[in-house]
Write a structure and sequence with these properties.
three-stranded antiparallel β-sheet, six-stranded mixed β-sheet, about 35% helix, globular
């Protein structure tokens, strides 16, 4: 077992995200601040159209999400601060910030936004964004930036692999493997608990103490930052360990692609051992679901907390940790509030419906989107449809993608933490890219692989036909149409001829794909 991690001083990026930014509350949701301007990436964005009278809501949310990503939050960067690797390029000279209230890309935001949508829609900007959160070590090799939120670093590996699969960028692949391998080795040395076979650290995106019960929350401590509370560096979290499993698999895949087959086998074996450990220690067989985290130290050391951590459940599905049987019970047992699945359920003792915690029973659209994609992957088109509609209706409130919403009312609400109300920030990028993920990877079922792009749509009844025109993929431009309903492909045509539900990576030119579901 590792010793408690040395605390690094809070970085400027953490201080910005960890402060209660004034002036943007639910009461003022109608007045949006001026957004940073930047030219959209070259080439027109795809155009969507829903049938069944659903276009104003579902299509409107999609068009707004595109604007959020490609215009509002694609901004110029300072090379002196962000090009620590020497790998950012100009053109495009831009990257993707975390949102209207956050001028920078954190490691998790950069990774999530690239993984969700940017690597598909704006690959050059996504590439810059991924490299903006990396640096070179003293020996010149690459590593994900080493800040005081180590547990959120490994999602970068998953996003980097997805970026390569979508773009085929071989120079990026070689550098990404180096950064991923160095980051995994470093984090294993510093944060691996050999007794449990799990990685230590808080839960994914749960940098605020409002995301945890007491303990580890210390009521006498007025700091919102999770690591300022006792033993939080030693907890063993579901979401974080699911992401490590996927990061190991991504590293194995990248190793094989660059010719390091022995290393690939070792990375894959590490993934297998970690999956076994997650299911041994975090699965609750009596409940048919996973617990949120194990206390690694303190008075409750060894205790598994039973809370529903929605990111963790989604990642258990999307990262390949849960078996098909486990996936079915997870989907059957999820708790939903009127405006969607919540970050963590139920309320901790210090919160309630009138005063939800910032990281507790409250709706983060990014979390909702991850769950919705997991539902589509798990064969639950009904849950997928509800998730898409939940986010679209939240967007429809004022036509913007906010950071956080009240789960019972749908109002913009940043939640409470350490005794005060916090703000929900405007034009939050991962709220918008989460919706794009649901449409691209959920509804159209886009799956990038080594040989090309495959389709596994989930089309709810009454939504079709749905068309997505002008979607760029490598050298091709695609016009996609999905009609019918369900998750079973009845037929697929490419340019009017019967074809498998996939296109090769080498395809170029303009093509039409039509898929009938039934």
């Amino acid at each position: 077992m590792t010793s408690p991690a040395n605390r690094r001083p809070l970085s400027r990026r953490t201080l910005l995200r960890g402060s209660a930014v004034a002036g943007l509350t639910a009461a003022g949701a109608g007045a949006m601040p001026a957004s940073a301007s930047a030219a959209a990436p070259s080439g027109a964005p795809p155009v969507i159209e829903f049938g069944g009278g659903r276009d104003a809501l579902l299509g409107g949310a999609y068009r707004s999400a595109l604007r959020n990503l490609l215009e509002i939050n694609t901004v110029p960067y300072d090379p002196a601060e962000y090009n620590q690797t020497g790998l950012l390029t100009d053109p495009p000279g831009t990257f993707i910030r975390a949102g209207g209230g956050y001028e920078q890309p954190w490691t998790r935001d950069a990774s999530v936004n690239s993984w969700n949508a940017a690597s598909l829609l704006s690959p050059a900007v996504a590439r810059n964004t991924l490299w903006s959160v990396c640096r070179r070590q003293d020996d010149g090799t690459l590593i994900v930036q080493q800040d005081n939120q180590w547990w959120d670093q490994v999602i970068w590996a998953i996003a980097a692999r997805e970026h390569y699969l979508l773009t085929g960028d071989r120079p990026f692949l070689a550098d990404a493997y180096e950064a991923t391998a160095n980051t995994l080795r470093h984090n294993r040395d510093e944060h691996f608990n050999a007794e449990y076979g799990l990685f230590e650290g808080p839960a994914f995106m749960q940098d605020g103490i409002a995301g945890y019960p007491s303990p580890p929350y210390d009521p006498a401590n007025d700091s919102s930052f999770v690591l300022d509370h006792p033993h939080t560096d030693r907890m063993l979290s579901l979401s974080t360990n699911c992401l490590y499993h996927a990061a190991y698999l991504a590293c194995a895949d990248m190793a094989a692609l660059v010719g390091e087959r022995d290393a690939a086998r070792r990375w894959r074996a590490s993934a297998g051992r970690l999956r076994t450990a997650v299911n041994r220690h975090l699965w609750r067989p009596e409940a048919g679901t996973y617990g949120s985290f194990i206390h690694g130290a303190g008075p409750k050391a060894g205790r598994l907390e039973p809370h529903q951590e929605t990111n963790g459940l989604a990642f258990a599905v999307l990262c390949g940790v849960a078996s098909p049987r486990q996936v079915r019970t997870l989907l059957d047992g999820i708790h939903q509030e009127p405006y969607g699945v919540v970050n963590v359920w139920p309320h901790f003792d210090r919160f309630d419906d009138a005063h939800p915690g910032r990281h507790n029973v409250i709706v983060w659209p990014m979390t909702t989107a991850m769950w919705g994609h997991a539902a589509a992957r798990g064969g639950r088109a009904d849950l997928f449809a509800r998730t898409v509609t939940d986010i679209a209706e939240l967007w429809h409130g004022d036509g913007h993608f906010w950071e956080i919403y009240h789960a019972r009312t749908g109002a913009v609400d940043g939640g409470r933490q350490v005794g005060r109300q916090w703000d929900s920030q405007p034009d939050q990028t991962w709220s918008a890219t989460g919706y794009l993920r649901l449409i691209h990877q959920g509804l159209f079922g886009l799956r990038a692989g080594h040989g090309g792009l495959s389709f596994a749509p989930s089309l709810p009844p009454g939504w079709g036909p749905v068309t997505l025109s002008g979607l760029a993929y490598r050298g091709a431009t695609l016009d996609l149409t999905v009609e019918g309903a369900g998750q079973r492909i009845v037929s697929c045509t490419l340019d009017g001829r019967p074809a498998p539900a996939r296109i090769p990576a080498a395809l170029d030119g303009h093509h039409a794909v039509r898929i009938e579901m039934g």
